[in-house]
Design goal:
Elements lengths: L1 H25 L8 H23 L5 H9 L8 H23 L14 H23 L8 H17 L9 H8 L4 H5 L3 H20 L11 H13 L1
Length: 238
C-alpha cells in the first residue's frame, strides 16, 4: 500500500503544482496567467499524472474523488483516510514549493464574491458532479480502453475550470485548494470550507447517480480493481 500512497502524493503534487506555478510564472514579464491557460494546464497535468501513476493507485489525486469511489463501493473505506493524507500532503508540498519559487499567494482559490454562498458552493458542486461522473464512468468499467480515462478526465477538468474559474477558481478538489491556501493568509483559509463541501457533495452524488444508471454490473470494477477484489476474497475466506 505504501507505493499506492506514494503515487497519490506525487500525483497530487503534480496536479496542484502545475496551475499554482503557472499563476506564479504568469506574474513574470512574458508569463501567461489567463483563465484559458490555467484550465489547459490543470487538465494537462491531470492527464499526465493519470498516465504516469494511474496503474499504481488508480489516480484519485482528489479527496472528493476518493470519497465518491468509496460511497459507490468501488473503493474500500479502510483506505480512504490514508489516501486523503497522501493527497493533502502532496498538495501542501506543492503549495510550499510554489511559494518558495514564486512567493505566496499564487494559484489561491477565493470566491469572487464570498457573500454569495449558494452560488459559490453550487459552482464547486456541479462541476465536481460532472467530473466525478466522467471519472467513475471511465475508471470503473472493464470494457473501457486504458487510453481513454486520462483523456476524458483531463478534458473534463479543462471545461469545468473554464466554467468555475471566474466564480470560485474552479477547484473541484479540496487538496488543490488547500495547498496554496496554507501559504496565502486568512482570506483563503476562511473560505476553504467551500472547496470541501462543494466538491465532496458533488462527487458523492455523481458516484451514486452513476451506480443507479449502470446497466451491466458485471462489467464494473473497483478503483483500483485488484485492491477491491483482494479485500472481497479475504472477506469470503473469513
Amino acid at each position: 500500500m505504501m507505493k499506492r500512497y506514494g503515487a497519490e502524493l506525487l500525483g497530487t503534487f503534480g496536479i496542484v503544482f502545475a496551475p499554482v506555478a503557472l499563476s506564479g510564472s504568469g506574474a513574470i514579464h512574458g508569463g501567461d496567467s489567463s483563465l484559458l491557460s490555467a484550465a489547459l494546464v490543470s487538465g494537462l497535468a491531470v492527464l499526465a499524472m493519470i498516465y504516469a501513476l494511474g496503474p499504481i493507485s488508480a489516480a484519485h489525486f482528489n479527496p472528493a474523488v476518493t470519497l465518491g469511489f468509496a460511497v459507490a463501493k468501488r473503493f474500500p473505506w479502510k483506505f480512504v483516510l490514508p489516501y486523503w493524507i497522501s493527497q493533502l500532503t502532496g498538495a501542501i508540498l506543492a503549495g510550499g514549493v510554489a511559494a518558495l519559487l514564486f512567493g505566496p499567494g499564487h494559484g489561491v482559490h477565493i470566491p469572487s464574491d464570498p457573500t454569495l454562498i449558494v452560488r459559490n458552493v453550487g459552482t464547486e458542486a456541479v462541476p465536481s458532479f460532472l467530473l466525478m461522473l466522467v471519472i467513475i464512468a471511465v475508471a470503473t468499467d472493464k470494457r473501457v480502453n486504458s487510453t481513454v480515462p486520462a483523456l476524458g478526465i483531463g478534458m473534463t477538468v479543462v471545461f469545468c475550470v473554464l466554467i468555475g474559474g471566474p466564480v470560485t477558481g474552479g477547484s473541484m478538489n479540496p487538496a488543490r485548494s488547500l495547498g496554496p491556501a496554507l501559504f496565502s493568509g486568512a482570506a483563503a483559509l476562511s473560505n476553504y470550507w467551500i472547496y470541501v463541501v462543494g466538491p465532496c457533495a458533488g462527487a458523492s452524488l455523481a458516484a451514486l447517480t452513476y451506480e443507479l444508471l449502470r446497466l451491466e454490473s458485471e462489467h464494473g470494477k473497483g478503483a483500483p480493481n485488484e485492491l477491491l477484489r483482494a479485500l472481497g476474497e479475504i472477506s469470503v475466506a473469513e
